[in-house]
Amino acid sequence: MNQPRPPILNISCYLFVAIEAPQVLRDLLQSRAQALGLKGTVLIAEEGINLFLAGAAADVRAWVDALREDPRFAALAPKESWSDTVPFRKLLVKVKPEIIRMNHPTIRPDQAPRAPALPAATLKRWLDQGHDDDGRPVVTLDTRNAFEVDVGAFDDAIDWRITKFSEFPDAVRAHRAELAGKTIVSYCTGGIRCEKAALFLAQQDLDGPVYQLEGGILKYFEEVGGAHYHGDCFVFDERRAVDPALAPSSTEGADDALGLAAALAPKAA
């Protein structure tokens, strides 16, 4: 017998798009979210929007539908998961210099074509067969922080043990030989870090194709499950982590990682 769906809808979503007046948008989105009783985090910058929200399904979807009425955000495609309770304690809507900080001014996804995005099903097929469709070896490159990787990751993924995403460019420069001549698939939780990472990697003349995993781990779980992945996916809310069925897992390792993330929060934005 099917179990009833938990009552709380959690969404995560980002979009790189030029925003000329982020403070004006911030005030509008905060008032809408407050009116609907939503909790979570919405980050806005001139380069785009990044959000994690939770609440009753009808209210969350009403907020997203209102945002999509703005042509700049028509392409928003939130990833969904469900929980028994709201995993956020408050609502935070904030303007920042970057929606994910890389500290690399030449990487502006809102001003450039997207890096090639690889669907989850294609990555699974390539990992099943051990190479891409041209016979080239495939490597998965984790762009997340080390404490997130420790909760779960793709099998044999490259992990440079970075502590914040702004360390990623220097890590690439230090490990270029590890990537040269291979098909690189960068990945992260929901796609935002691996999208910036793929653009940076494409500038490095690595003699091989570079992709971002479309929608990150969460979209991979949604579309193909946990194939070629071990553990859970760390998330920055009170669920701690979700398993390949996108259900809260709250593993001991995820609890430890959340504590570390909280300790690093002031310097790891």
Question: What labels describe this entry?
Answer:
four-stranded parallel beta sheet, 269 residues, alpha/beta, globular, five-stranded mixed beta sheet, disordered C terminus
Radius of gyration: 18 Å
Question: From the coordinates shown, what is the CATH architecture of the largest domain?
Answer: 3-Layer(aba) Sandwich
Q: How would you classify the helix and strand content by structural class?
A: alpha/beta
Average pLDDT number: 93
Largest sheet entry: 5 strands, mixed
Total strand segments: 13
Q: What oligomeric state best describes the polypeptide chains here?
A: single chain
What is the assigned CATH homologous superfamily of the largest domain?
Answer: Rhodanese-like domain
Number of structural units classed as domains: 2
- Share of residues in helices: 25-40%
**What is the count of helical runs?**
9
**What shape does the CA trace take?**
globular
Q: In CATH's first tier, which class of the largest domain applies?
A: Alpha Beta
Q: In CATH terms, what is the fold-level topology of the largest domain? A: Oxidized Rhodanese, domain 1
Low-confidence stretches: 263-269
Protein name: Sulfurtransferase
Pfam families: Rhodanese, UPF0176_N
